[in-house]
Batch of 3 targets.
Target 1
Amino acid sequence: MTKELHIVGGGMAGSEAAWQAANLGVRVVLHEMRPKVGTFAHQTGNFGEMVCSNSFRSDDDEQNAVGLLHWEMRASKGLIMASADRHKLPAGGALAVDREPFAEHVTAALKSHPNIETSYEEVTELPDEGEWIFATGPLTSPALGEAIARETGTDRLAFFDAIAPIVYAESIDMSVAWMQSRYDKGETEDEQKAYLNCPMSKDQYEAFIDALLAADKTEFHEGETAGYFDGCLPIEVMAERGRETLRFGPMKPIGLTNEHRPDDKPYAVVQLRRDNKLGTLYNIVGFQTKMKYGAQTAVFKMIPGLQDASFARLGGIHRNTFLNSPTLLDDHMRLRSKPNIRFAGQVTGVEGYVESAAMGLLAGRMAAHTIMGRDLAPPPFTTAMGALINHITGGADAKTFQPMNVNFGLFPPLEGLRGGRKGRKERYKGYTVRAKVDFNQWLEAQSSCNA
C-alpha cells in the first residue's frame, strides 16, 4: 500500500479524519494554510482551534442526540473527543473545553503520529488524482472556494455566522451576578455552579432591547444576503423577530434563583460560561452579534453585573460557505463529478464542532478503506453519524438545504412508542439504545475486516 491520503484543513473535521486514517495504517498528508494564510476568525496555526463557542453541548448520551454523537466518537477512539475529555471545564450537563490547551493537545497528537505529515502550503485547486478529503470548513479560502464553484457548476451557498464576545472574569460585578447552572444541573458543585448569571428586571430588559434594536450593525456588501443559520442567530436578529424572543431563548430565567435576592424572580437572565480552565475568561452564552464594536461595548455594559466589563474579544460576523451536499455528494461524501475527492465537516452542511468532527471521522475511515482496496458503508441511519450523513447526502431537500445540527428528528422512528412531549423521555432512550447496538455492530464489522 503506497497511496497517500491528502487532507486539506486542520480544523475539527480534518484533524479527526487524519487521526482515524493514520490509525488504520494509511499515510496521511495534512494540509493547513494557517498560520501562513490567516482567516477572519482564527488566531493561531494550531489544529482543532475553536473559533466560536468552547462548548461541545450536551454530554447526555441517553436523552440527547449530540450526547449520543459524543458516545459514538468515543467508541471510535476519536481524537477530538479524547482531547475534549482531557481538557473539559465545568459546564453543567454540557461538555465545554479549555480551548487553547485543547487545540495544543490535538496539534501535538497529530504532529507526533508516525503516519502523519503536515504541510502549511495553501491548496487552491481540486486535484484530478489521488485520494483527497477537503475539510476546509465554513471559512474556505477565496481561491479554493472559486475552484469548488467552478467544479460544481453552482454558486457557493452562503450564510452569515456571528461570534459571541468574551469577558474578563475580574471585571464582572459578583455582588450582582451569581454562579449557578440551570436547575442546579450537574453531579459536582463545580458543575452545579458552572455558569455565571446576570439578572434583569422587566424595565432593564426593555431598555436593553431598545438599545439592541437601535445599535449600529455591520453592513453587508452589495450582492450579499443575510442568510443566517437558525442555530446561530445574532441577538439583534432574534430581537427583531419579537421583543420577547430573547427572554424565551438565551435570556430565559427559568431554573435559576438569584442568591443575592432569592425572593426576587428575574425577568430575564444573561448567562456566561467559563472559557478557560483558569476561570479568567467567560463567554456570553448565545450572544452572537453583528453590532459594531463601539455599540457592543455600550449595549453589553447595560447588563447588570457587566457595567464595568472589560472584553477579551468582542463579537463579530463573517461569511461562511457550504456545499449543496444533497446534489453534489454521494453517500460516501465523494464529489460526484470527482470521486477521488471527499468533503467533510461544516463545508458539507453540518453545524457544530462535534458534527463536523464526526463527518471527518467517517470521511477518514472511508478514504482509508478505499486506499486499502475495501468499501466501508456508512453507519446505519439509526445511529447519530448515520442519520447525519444520510441527511446531508440525500435526506434533505436540496432546495431548502441549510446547515443542520444532529437531532432526533433525523432518526427513523421507533414503532410502539408514545409520540409528543409526554413520551419524549422514553422515545429518546429508545433511540439511543438502538443506536448504540447498531453502531457497535458497524465498528465490529470493521474490526473483522482489518483483522
Target 2
Amino acid sequence: MESAFSHTILSFLLLLLLPLFSSATKFPSNDHIDLYSIASFPKLQAEKLISDLNLFPDDDINLAAHVVHDPSSETSKIVEKRFEFPSIRASSGPSVQDLGHHAGYYRLPHSKAARMFYLFFESRNNSNDPVVIWLTGGPGCSSELAVFYENGPFKIANNLSLVWNDYGWDKASNILFVDQPIGTGFSYTSDESDIRHDEEGVSNDLYDFLQAFFTQHPQYVKNEFYITGESYAGHYIPAIASRVHKGNKAKEGIHINFKGFAIGNGLTNPEIQYKAYPDYALNMGLIKKSDYENVSKLVPDCERSIKTCATSGGGGDACLISYSLCTNIFNRIMDIAGNGVNYYDIRMKCEGALCYDFSNMETFLDQKSVRDALGVGDINFVSCSSTVYDAMVNDWMRNLEVGIPALLEDGIKVLVYAGEYDLICNWLGNSRWVQAMQWSGQKKFNDSPTVPFQVDGAEAGQLKTYGPLSFLKVHNAGHMVPMDQPKAALEMLRSWMQGKLAMAERISPK
C-alpha cells in the first residue's frame, strides 16, 4: 500500500515538474508521462555533462565481466608497478627515470570483485613532502582528468605527446590520483552489487585503500597527509576525512598522519548552495532582475525537498524528486543565459554542445603502449560514468558539511577554494555554507578581514581565514582552478600545507 501510494504521489509530482525541466535535458518521447521519465532524468543529465567535455566513453560504467579471477588469489593487496609514459618530451628538469611513477590496482576487501585503480607520483621536490590524494568529482569522472589537464605532472599536447607541467602538484607533494567510485576510469568490477550509492561505501573503500597504500609504502607513513579534490568531491572529501580521523582515533590499522583537506569548487551543502544560484547568476549578469524573481520562486520547493530527502533517510523517491527540483534551478538559469554559456567558466562560450575538449585523454589512454605501461591490459577506460552518477543520486542532496566542525575542533585544517567564474559550484554558495557552519571559531572566522592572496606580488584571490579554516576565492579561474590558474593553485597548496596561506607576500613557485 505504501509503495503504491508513493508511486501515485511521484506520478502527480512528475506532472508538475516536467514543464519546469530545462530543454538542456531531453526526456524520451512518450504518449504519456510515466515514472521512467523522472527516474531517467539524472542519467540523461549526466550524459549531457559528459558530452559537453567532448568525452564519449564506450561504456557507461566499467563492468569488466570478461575478467576472470582465481578465487585462490583473492587477497586485499596492492598490485603495483613502476612505469614510464611513452612520448614524454625532454626537459631541463629531472628525467622520468629519476622519479617514481607508479600505477596499481587494489582489490577492495568489502566488495565482491572490485579493483580500484590509482596513479602515484613521487615528489619532484623532496620525498619528505606531504602525501596528497586527489579526488575528481562527477560523480563518476576519472581522476586522470586532473592528471592531464589540471595538477598532474604532465599535459597532453595535440600530437598526444606529454609535456611536463611546471605547476604540477607533484612539485610540492607525493600525490595520489584515484579512480573512484568503482566503475570510474580504470577501476572496475565484474559484479554490479559493488556499485556504490552513498558516502559510507565510498569512504570505506578509500580508507581501505589508504591502509593498503601505506602498508605498501611504509616510508611515507611519517609524512603529513592531505585530502584534496573538486566538484562532487565536496561530498567525498568530508566523508573520507571523517573516516580517516575516526580510524586514527580508534587505532585501526596504520595511523595516517592526517593534517587537513581542501575542497575546490565543491558541492558540500546543497541547501545553501542551490539557493545561491539565482544570486550568483544575477550578480554576474547571466540573468536580469525579472528573471531572478522568477527563478527564485523555484528555491523554496528545492529547500523543502532537500529536507524531505534528509528525513527519508537518504533513499527512495524523495531524494530523486529533490535532485530534479533543485537541478531545475540551474537548468532554468542556463536556459535564460543561453548563447552557449560555459557553466564551468562563464567567461567562455561553448561551441555547440562542446564546452571543453578533453578527448585527447581518451585517445591517449587507449594507446597500446600506454596501456602496457600502466599494466591495465584490455580493461576499458570509462572517462566519466553516467551509471555511477545515477547510482549516487540519493546521496546528491546530503549535507556533508555536518561532519566538518568536529574535524576543525580537533585541529584538522580545512581549505575551501573556488574559482570566481564557475557557475555550477560557484564561489558564492561555497562562501555562504562556510560562513554558516557552526563551530567554536564561527564568529571569529566571519569577523576576520578578507585579505588579498598574492602570487608574485599580484593579487591572485581573496582570502578569509581564522584558525584551521580558510576560504579562498581565486581570481580569473572557473571550475577547474589548477587548470585555469596553475601557478596560483600550486602556491595555494604549498603555502596552505606549510601554514603560510595568510601571509601577505608571496614568491613564485620554483
Target 3
Amino acid sequence: MSFAPSPCVPAGARSIQEQRERWDRKRKCTGRELVQSEQKYCEQLDLITTYFVEILKAKGTLRQDIRESIFSSIKSIHLVNQTLLTHLEEGKFGYGFEQFCPHLHFYTAYVDNIQTAKRVLMVQLKKNKAFRRFKKLQESRPEFHKMKLEDLLPLPLQRIQQYKHFLRDLTENTSPDNPEFQQLSRAVKAVSEVAQRIQDNARSHENHLQLRRVQKLLKGRKTRLLAPDRWYVREGWLKTVPPKGTETKPKMFFLFSDILIQAKPCSSMHPTNGNKFSCQRVYPLKECTVDKVFGHTKSQGGLISLTFARAKLLLMSSDQEDINDWYRSLCLAVGQLKSKNTVVHRREELLRQPLRSAMDGQQSPAASPQPHGRKRAMVREEGPEGSQRPCSSSSRAPAGECAVSTSKKIKLSEAPNARSQESSGSSCVIL
C-alpha cells in the first residue's frame, strides 16, 4: 500500500497559521454579535426619539427645559450610532469606531445627566396628568414590546459597557500587523474612559443616597453628614467598654471616610423618633490610632482600641468575623485620610515661597534706612539657620530696641504653635 507524498510544512509555521485562523474565527463571531446588538440598540433609540422626543416637541406636552432634562443628548446619540451601524455592517470596525469616538462627548453629557433625568421624570409622572397619560399610550404600542421609558433611558450607559468588552475582544483577535489594530486600541482607551465615568457617577450617587439615609436615621439636625468629600463605609452594633467597671454597652456606630459616629437608639415609645438614633459623639479620624487588643486568633470575638487626641474608645464584639471587618475598615479609612493629608501638606510646602531670601535680595547693605526700619531689622537679625545675631550699628536703632525686636520675634514664632495646639484639642465632639 502506497501513500502520496505530502508537502513538508514546518511545525512553527503551522502553529502560527492555526493561531491566525483561531483569531479570525473569534473576530468574525465578535463582529457578528456586535452588529446584531447594534441594530437592536439603534431600534430602541429610534423608539425614544420618534415616539417621545419628536412627538412631545410637536404636541407641547412638556416644556423644552423639562424635555432636555429628561432626554438630554439622546437625539444626537441616535444620529451618531446610525452612522456607526453603517460602518459596522460593512465590516469596517476600526474605521467605524475611529469616526465614532470623537462624538463620545454626547455620551458623557448623557451620563452626567442621567440622575437628573430620572428625578425629573418621576416628578412629571407624579404631577403632570397629561404626560402620564401620553407615556402610557406610547408604551402600549407593539413596537415597545412592553418596555417602559424607565427601561429605555439607561440604555446608552449599558451600551458603553458593552462597547468596552466588544472592542477588547476585537483588539485581542486582531493581528498587530492589521491596520485596524491601532484604530481599535485607541477606541478601547476612549470608550473605557467614558465607562469609568459611568462607574464613578454611579458610585457617587449611591454614596449620596447612603449619606441621606443615615442623616434621616439620626434624630435632630446637629450632625451634618452631607459633605463633599465624605464617603459612607459601613455601620453596625458594637459594645463599648467603659474605662471604669466591666459593664459593656451596645452602641450603634456609623463609619465614614473621615468620622466615626457613636449613637444610641431612641425610645421605642417616641411617636416620631421610635426608629431613629440619637447621636452621642462624633470622633474625627484625622488623628486616630487603631490597635487590635485581642482577636488575632480564631477565638470568639475581639477588642479594638481607638486612640484620639483627647479620648480613647474600646470597641468589642463577640463575632470574630465582624470585629475583623471593623478593624480592616477602620485601618483603611484612617490610612487613606492620613495619606491624603500628607500629600496636601507636601504640596503646600512645595508651593511656599522663600520669604526671607526674597527680602534679603531686595535690600542692599548700602541702602539708606527707611521709616519702617524696625521690621526689616527683625528679619535681618535672623541667620540662615534660624540663629539670632546682635543688632548691627548700621540699622540705626536705639539701644533698647534690639531686645524688644528679639522678644517680638519669639512671640511671633510661638503664636502658630499655640494655635495648632488649640485646634488639635477638638478631636472629639460631643453633640
